[in-house]
Specification:
Chain lengths: ~110, ~120
């Protein structure tokens, strides 16, 4: 049973489209994250949510809008996709107050043509 | 500023050789946590180790060992008797921020290739 699952795993779309990536965790964690890995493999945080509340917004363009309907889900919606949005997006979760590891999903590879 | 530097972009060795991946970090915090993650060709991120700033003991797990040196702000990772399955990108990371607003700051990653 996958701990952190993301869908879809692959997404190919045209510039200007709107797309969403969904993430769910069954670990009982209350904090979830979105990280972006660019073509050079650099990993950078985009957002974090704790109990559905936005905690970290790392100067991400307004076209990116995370939504957390409950603490087990964190979705990422991207409007007006641009070529530069092509990347692998990782969802992760952890437990608030713990300094333990983040549990990552398998990643969603977004390709914008 | 908090920063993690992995100066080695790519390393290539022959199987059974020992290899060390370097990690240097910068932080003003007195309490902090360091991590290593592995990203195999399949793409997922696999947790390897967490080390807190108060524990400078070296850690060994099978063929993997970690050398944490606060004096040089380094947290190096050594694979002994490397195997082809060790081929991956390895990331060192620093946990930054207060509880609830924590985030991992990653190094640039080191691509390790183990040749048969």
């Amino acid at each position: 049973d996958t701990a952190v699952s993301q869908t879809p795993k692959y997404l190919v779309t045209q510039m200007g489209n709107d797309k969403s990536i969904k993430c769910e965790q069954n670990l009982g964690h209350d904090t979830m994250y979105w990280y972006k890995q660019d073509s050079k493999k650099f990993l950078k945080i985009m957002f974090s949510y704790n109990n559905k509340e936005l905690i970290i917004n790392e100067t991400v363009p307004n076209r990116f809008s995370p939504k957390s309907p409950d603490k087990a889900h964190l979705n990422l919606h991207i409007n007006s996709l641009e070529l530069g949005d092509s990347a692998v997006y990782f969802c992760a979760s952890s437990q608030f107050g713990a300094t333990g590891e983040l549990f990552f999903g398998e990643g969603s590879r977004l390709t914008v043509l | 500023a908090q920063k993690v530097t992995q100066a080695q972009t790519e390393i290539s060795v022959v199987e059974k050789e020992d290899v060390t991946l370097d990690c240097v970090y910068e932080t003003r915090d007195t309490t902090y946590y360091l991590f290593w993650y592995k990203q195999p060709p399949s793409g997922e991120l696999v947790f390897l180790i967490r080390r807190n700033s108060f524990d400078e003991q070296n850690e060994i797990s099978g063929r993997y060992s970690w050398n944490f040196q606060k004096s040089t702000s380094s947290f190096n990772f050594t694979i002994t008797a490397s195997q082809v399955v060790d081929s991956a990108v390895y990331f060192c990371a620093l946990l930054k921020g207060t509880q609830g607003a924590q985030k991992l700051v990653f190094g640039q990653g080191t691509r390790l290739t183990i040749n048969p």
